[in-house]
Write a structure and sequence with these properties.
- The complex is a heterotrimer of chains A (330), B (341) and C (545).
- Chain A has twelve helices and ten strands.
- Chain A is α/β, with parallel strands linked by helices and 330 residues long.
- In chain A, α2 links the parallel β1 and β2.
- Chain A is globular, with a radius of gyration of 21 Å.
- Chain A starts with a helix and ends with a helix.
- The longest helix of chain B is centred in the middle third of the chain and has 18 residues.
- Chain B is an alpha+beta fold.
- In chain B, the strands form four sheets. Chain B has a six-stranded mixed β-sheet, with helices on both faces. A five-stranded antiparallel β-sheet of chain B has the order 2-1-4-5-6, with helices on one face. In chain B, strands 14-13-12-15-21 form a five-stranded antiparallel β-sheet.
- In chain B, 23% of the residues lie in helices and 36% in strands.
- The chains are: A alpha/beta (330), B alpha+beta (341), C mainly alpha (545).
- Chains B and C meet through β7 of B and α19 and α20 of C.
Chain lengths: 330, 341, 545
């Protein structure tokens, strides 16, 4: 009886060890399964290609790829911010995408060398408790948040990829010194630190926190589940790092053994149907011209955009973490 | 030419644990069919010796052979399961998750099992108990199962480690007799370890007395009791009184009186007298006073005080009837004499 | 979680909680067969290599990466982790000991039901407890909504303290419960007979005898708290693990995370060392009770107090989380959210956890036999390694394994095999602890009897030893199953691509604010975990042998 159990165990382990199927398309996703799981399923049904997705934080996924190097089983990398996919591109691990895919979205949302393409857009906003604040109370840029009147009122997620990408953009726009000063100002203000955007949105919606720096779509999800929530998004009116549209990016690994399927997958993400899915299900901005954003959102053209080369964000990503650590926020 | 090889032959076994010497040149030869008791005070190494024979703890040096086959010596160390030794443990060590039949049949090959189990259970008087679990048996019954289990594979020798120490007195006497009978009926060669000298004397054909890691005397029970090789053996095997004396021309003179002695002994000697070798006769002005007495029914033990204050134990019959304070005269029937250095 | 005093000849206490008598006598005897050593060593190797590798990686780190070691913030985080660990350990001991004593030694109404309910928080992951307290508290939380009171949010240190106390006190509870059941009632009775009050006799007679059990439970609690990530992160209590995670998740360069990890391992080792030092020469009274303990009668006041205590523990640790989860699932379903059970994740959890449990049980056998029967320096180190492995923060272990596997293990990287082996070795101490308790009850002469009856070591192991230690093995397996079901960090980093577990589903859904889905997965997780827990609680009742 016991011996049988042991043999079964050994067999199960052996089988599982050899079950890596080379026909399967392996996607490393920094975007969560909750968001893109249904889309992947749809892709599998339509294309007949099996997809195995490895989910994780965007930076984590990028670091994992760098750790794996040429041995990586991944075919496609899909991150929620341009900085982490940029880090993979910087290491020379990505191949240039075909022009017909790159040309589908506006140039400013993709890598300058065509190593990755933007898929959907997210905007940094302030989520605030509507019973306590009005848009008039909120500053024009993130720099207004380090004033003493905001003492303890603005939640941040300092370890989160989106926040770090925002800090990286601020370094590119304002310089290292100004960025560190801003971070230290936030720290001196005792800004409550959360583990991620969603806990900030929950805290604001549940009346535990006045406001917080987040991506725009978390609140929309909360509103869908609990429509009576008394919270709203505030978009910074000035073109700073705080109002940057960050595209989620997708790229194909140089070492892929499944290039055709990988391109089919990227093309699928840039198809009208997928773009509509982003608009209606994840509440992100579709980047394909002509696909409208959710009607609760201002049109993407109205979001003021600072001059940042997204491909360069990766070069200052670790510096961003250094500064956040230095400011005492981590 | 058909000289039978000894069932067990231990030569010069040494075993130390850290600073403690458990076996110190231990040697023992046991003939086929012989029941030997290995007796000694606790800590003398007797259990270690048994475990060395069984193969549970290989000694540091020496050799062991069983049935003429060397099972331990320089470069040889046969595993316990290949030594053909049956072991009966102090706590019986029955397999608690197996029935009596499964316990007894454990060491028997598949084809012989049913038959052999029935045979051995019959031998130990447990027929019909096959399906009981050890926890459902009395101490004595567990003991029998343990013995049956050890005998079942027809081992070369059976080793018993303090087998009766977990039984209470009335059961112990009965089990002792039964075990002796079972071992004889089975024609088994057996070594059993005990610290109880009366048990050692009662059960065995041969008694091996152990002290400080080696055997100091081997002989029949009568031999070792009546003719101990030294005063220590004498006092270990039974109550005894030691007195100093001088031997001269076949007579030993002591302050308790004179005894005849074998003429080869001359000079200062130590005389050992066992309580039952003393005859006490009531006398109004006797040389000793009864201080205390324990009356056992079949006999009695007197504690006597001599004129010089020394105390002596005497085992006497049901008579004379004495009381504390009575005076008696003493006579010594026998004595063992050791030269004194 | 068994964990015992694995270091030496002293008796041990295990996680399911059994205080043990030392084996009848020290029998050095023969050497263990080589295959037993091979089995014992083989199971710890998968973690030893990666950790050594991690250590060398840290040694070879650049000065910039090492800077983090001397950062003031690092010291502050170490302090914050230590404070939290000390608080949680203290309260878990109080709650665990009090709970075990009330349930086992008094005539509190509903004793049997409480016995099953009180340890239930063991199956609820600490991050689920944290989430539910966050949802229940606060100005718009469930409690405030229902009562209209002004409820402050429960987060930060108090929140982490409460959530972790509730998820760790069952360690202490289960161990002390088993120890109490084996305690000789005569001693306490004697004290009472000598005129000591009930309180005084508990304090002076019972408590000292429970020390080994309490010590082992406290050690587990401390190590668990130190390495917890989910609860502290949700409660926004910055601690060492959150810093490791931040450095890991926020950087491309993983060396600073590795540096902090090694530091956390050192803190864990200090705790283990401290527990050993304070254990000192504690007396281990291990007489087997000849009769049942008489239960204390309670006065009305005492009965109310006892009931109040048990009710609050069960309310906080079981009722609130379950109600919150059910509310979320119901609310989500009402607004048309797809609240379905993810069968893939259910399958993943069950497969991963049961394979890990079976492997841990199989590996526990040689380790326990080696350490109990063939004691010695090497066996001692082997057991110590198992124990230290259990105390390591999973994120550290997982990180080390990722580093190592991607370079040297080829196809095993991201395989279910590797994940299961890591699960089994992380949680091996639970299996060995429970098994060791059973093993200590196996009379060594029983094995010798088998040997002298012609059976070799392997056959003796199979037909005598293993059947006799089965209760302990099964209890250990159940514990490993339970903890693997909840495991998150190692699963996230090491799972095969496409492999999902309920814990991962809960985590990722909650992270993205899909509370209804998180709740559905969490409820399934609790349901599945309750089954082995039931057997576990049962197993501490009957003392085998």
């Amino acid at each position: 009886m016991r011996r049988f159990g042991l043999i079964a165990l050994i067999v199960a382990l052996a089988v599982s060890a050899c079950s890596t199927d080379s026909d399967t398309l392996t996607v490393y996703s920094g975007r969560s399964e909750e968001l893109i799981g249904p889309l992947i399923q749809q892709f599998e049904e339509e294309s007949g290609i099996d997809v195995a997705v490895r989910y994780g934080g965007s930076t984590e996924i990028a670091a994992t790829l760098l750790e794996e190097g040429d041995r990586s089983p991944a075919d496609v990398v899909f991150t929620q911010d341009p900085a982490s996919i940029g880090a993979v591109a910087l290491e020379g691990m990505l191949d240039r995408l075909p022009d017909d895919l790159l040309s589908r979205v506006p140039e400013r949302f993709s890598d300058t060398d065509g190593l990755w393409v933007g898929v959907s857009g997210r905007v940094r906003t302030i989520v605030y408790d509507t019973t306590l604040l009005t848009p008039a109370d909120l500053p024009a840029t993130e720099d207004g948040l380090i004033g003493s009147e905001w003492q303890g009122l603005v939640g941040i997620a300092p370890a989160n990829g989106s926040f770090l990408a925002f800090v990286a953009a601020k370094i590119l726009l304002d310089g290292e010194v100004a960025t560190l000063a801003w971070l230290e100002g936030m720290a001196a203000n005792g800004s409550p630190a959360y583990s991620n955007n969603s806990s900030i949105v929950s805290a604001v919606a549940d009346g535990q926190l006045d406001s917080g720096l987040v991506n725009h779509y978390y609140l929309l999800r909360r509103l869908k589940e609990q429509p009576q929530t008394s919270a709203a998004n505030y978009f910074f009116p000035e073109p700073t790092a705080g109002s940057l549209v960050m595209p989620a990016g997708v790229g194909i690994l140089r070492t892929t053994d499944n290039r055709e399927a990988a391109e089919t997958f990227v093309a699928f993400l840039l198809s009208e149907r997928s773009q509509q899915y982003f608009a209606s299900e994840t509440f992100e901005y579709p980047l394909l011209p002509g696909v409208p954003a959710n009607n609760g959102l201002p049109p993407i053209g109205d979001v003021p955009t600072p001059e940042v080369d997204l491909s360069e964000l990766a070069t200052v990503l670790d510096l961003a973490t250094d500064l956040v650590t230095q400011a005492g926020l981590l | 030419m058909t000289e039978t090889r000894p069932a067990i032959e231990c030569r010069g076994l040494f075993q130390t644990y850290g600073d403690t010497v458990a076996l110190d040149d231990f040697s023992l030869v046991v003939d086929k069919g012989e029941v030997v008791s290995l007796v000694g005070p606790s800590g003398c190494g007797k259990t270690t010796a048994l475990r060395a024979i069984a193969g549970f703890e290989p000694p540091d040096a020496g050799s062991v052979s069983i049935g003429g086959r060397t099972v331990f010596s320089e470069g040889v160390d046969v595993a316990p399961e290949k030594r053909r030794v049956g072991m009966v443990f102090q706590d019986y060590a029955l397999f608690p998750h197996m029935t009596v039949a499964d316990n007894v049949g454990y060491g028997v090959t598949e084809e012989d099992r049913v038959e052999r189990v029935a045979e051995v259970l019959d031998l130990v008087g447990l027929t019909g108990m096959d399906h009981r679990l050890p926890s459902e048996l009395s101490g004595g019954e567990q003991q029998r199962v343990a013995l049956a289990r050890a005998l079942a594979p027809r081992p070369e020798v059976v080793l018993l480690d303090e087998p009766f120490s977990n039984l209470d007195a009335p059961h112990r006497d009965r089990m002792r007799r039964d075990v002796r009978r079972i071992l004889r009926d089975a024609g088994a060669t057996a070594v059993f370890v005990t610290h109880d000298q009366s048990e050692a004397l009662a059960i065995a054909d041969t008694v091996a007395v152990m002290r400080d890691g080696h055997v100091v005397q081997v002989g029949s029970p009568l031999d070792v009791y009546q003719r101990p090789t030294d005063p220590w053996v004498a006092s270990f095997l039974g109550e005894s009184l030691a007195v100093e004396g001088i031997a001269e021309d076949g007579v030993v003179k002591t302050d308790l009186g004179s005894f005849p002695v074998d003429g080869s002994v001359e000079g200062a000697v130590r005389v050992i007298i066992r309580p039952e070798w003393i005859i006490a006769t009531p006398a109004a002005n006797g040389e000793a006073t009864v201080i205390d007495l324990e009356y056992y029914g079949h006999d009695q033990m007197l504690l006597l005080e001599l004129a010089d204050g020394r105390r002596v134990q005497a085992r006497v019959g049901r008579r004379p009837v004495l009381d504390r304070g009575d005076r008696v005269d003493l006579e010594f029937q026998e004595a063992v004499v050791f030269p004194r250095d | 979680m068994t964990v015992q005093a694995p270091w030496g000849p002293e008796p041990a206490v295990n996680v399911v909680g059994v205080t043990e008598a030392p084996p009848p006598q020290s029998r050095t005897g023969r050497k263990a067969p080589w295959w037993m050593w091979a089995g014992g060593v083989l199971i710890v190797l998968p973690l030893i290599f990666p950790l050594v590798f991690l250590f060398f990686r840290v040694l070879g780190a650049s000065d910039a990466a090492l800077d983090i070691l001397f950062d003031l913030r690092t010291a502050e985080l170490a302090l914050r982790s230590t404070v939290l660990t000390a608080l949680v350990t203290a309260t878990a001991v109080v709650v665990g000991v009090a709970g075990a004593w009330v349930v086992s030694s008094t005539e509190v109404p509903g004793r049997k039901a409480w016995g099953v309910l009180v340890p239930l928080p063991l199956v609820i992951p600490s991050y689920v407890l944290a989430l539910s307290f966050l949802a229940a508290s606060g100005p718009r939380g469930t409690l405030a909504t229902v009562t209209g009171w002004d409820v402050p949010v429960l987060d930060g240190l108090p929140g982490a303290w409460l959530a972790l106390t509730l998820s760790t006190f069952p360690f202490v509870y289960l161990m002390v419960l088993a120890a109490l059941r084996r305690l000789d009632p005569a001693l306490e009775d004697a004290a009472r007979g000598l005129g000591a009050s009930r309180w005084h006799s508990f304090w002076t007679i019972t408590l000292p005898q429970l020390r080994p059990a309490i010590g082992a439970g406290a050690l587990l609690t401390a190590l668990y708290t130190l390495s917890d990530f989910g609860a502290v992160s949700l409660m926004r209590y910055a601690a060492f693990t959150t810093a490791i995670y931040a450095q890991y998740a926020g950087r491309i360069d993983r060396t600073p995370a590795a540096v902090l990890s090694v530091l956390l391992i050192l803190i864990a080792l200090v705790i283990i060392w401290a527990e050993q030092r304070t254990r000192g020469r504690a007396a281990y009274h291990t007489s087997r009770p000849a009769r049942r303990r008489s239960r204390q009668r309670l006065s009305t006041g005492e009965r109310i107090a006892a009931l109040g205590f048990l009710t609050s523990v069960v309310t906080l640790g079981v009722v609130i989380p379950v109600v919150v989860l059910a509310t979320w699932a119901w609310r989500g379903a009402r607004v048309g959210e797809t609240v379905t059970i993810d069968w893939g994740a259910v399958g993943g959890s069950l497969i991963g956890s049961s394979l890990a449990a079976v492997l841990a049980m199989a590996a526990a056998i040689p380790i326990v036999v080696l350490t109990v029967r063939y004691r010695g320096r090497a066996a001692g180190w082997l057991e110590r390694t198992v124990f230290v492995t259990f105390s390591l923060p999973h994120i550290t272990v997982a990180l080390a394994v990722v580093f190592f596997a991607v370079r040297y293990l080829g196809p095993l990287y991201q395989s279910l095999t590797l994940l299961v082996v890591v699960y089994a070795s992380i949680f091996l101490a639970q299996a060995t602890g429970a098994t060791r308790a059973s093993m200590l009850q196996v009379n060594p002469s029983v094995e010798e009897a088998s040997r002298s009856l012609g059976k070799g070591p392997l056959q003796t192991l199979r037909s005598v030893t293993v059947p006799l230690i089965r209760p302990g093995l099964l209890a250990g397996g159940a514990l490993v199953f339970l903890t693997t079901m909840k495991e998150l960090p190692a699963t996230l980093l090491l799972r095969p691509t496409g492999f999902d577990t309920l814990a991962v589903r809960i985590w990722s859904a909650a992270n993205e604010l899909f509370y209804a889905r998180a709740a559905a997965s969490a409820l399934v997780l609790l349901g599945l975990s309750a089954i082995p827990l039931y057997f576990l609680v049962l197993s501490t009742k009957e003392s085998p042998g």
